[in-house]
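Quick note —
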Amino acid sequence: MQCKENRDVPTLRSIERDPWLRGYTSFMPVLAVPGGNETVEHFKLPTRTNAPRMGRHSVRRALEGSPEEVVDRIELLVSELVTNSVTHADLDPGQEVELTLAVQPGAIRIEVADPGKPFRWTAGDGRGEEGRWGLLLTDKLADRWGVVQQQRGKTVWFEVDV
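Predicted structure written out below.
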């Protein structure tokens, strides 16, 4: 399957002018999957404290025109998962957090991947502890979610029905 670039999205030049998106180490525009009903967008975020804000802004722009309640939920969960990657994955400054957004018929899927250390989570982990709400919120607000451990790193994904 081949992908083609969708020219209706911001160009790298417009991103450089956008103060919310400054600091991206790289950017890939929206990709349309030919013959399919899915649109995929990839972002690579720096391992800096502004990465969650950049992730929130990216999904808000990508989902423009979607129901506000859905965008708000996704924006919150993206912020939490990117924060987890930047804070807990023991990433080196040159490494990146990958954010993928896929708009599918009936659902929006988000993946946050990092090359950092793996982890295990069970319901109740960190409940009530300050700064430990990311996966608990994901468990409560996403319609489906999971973790894929990889040889190097992991991907935390979630889906929200639309």
